[in-house]
Design a protein that fits this description.
77 residues; mainly alpha
Length: 77
């Protein structure tokens, strides 16, 4: 298993968690083994790509609404 190729693949799909919530779980696990990927995780990554190819119409849409303000919270009081 070529670790560099695996890292490039996982790095290129990391943005999916923003638009494809169904990919959060698998991307999280693929990221966790980036240091020492195995052939098993390479197969999982390829399976994920085949799944994505068949589900290109699935995505989250974010639309702009006037007057909506982003509010953040910190742990400090």
């Amino acid at each position: 298993m070529e670790a560099t190729v695996y890292r490039k693949l996982v790095g290129s799909v990391m943005y999916l968690v923003n638009t494809r919530s169904d990919m959060c779980y698998v991307v999280k696990h693929l990221i966790q083994v980036m240091v020492r990927p195995t052939n098993q995780y390479w197969k999982v990554a390829k399976h994920m790509l085949r799944y994505l190819k068949g589900t290109t119409q699935y995505r989250l849409w974010y639309r702009w609404i006037e007057g909506v303000k982003l509010q953040g919270f910190t742990g400090a009081d």
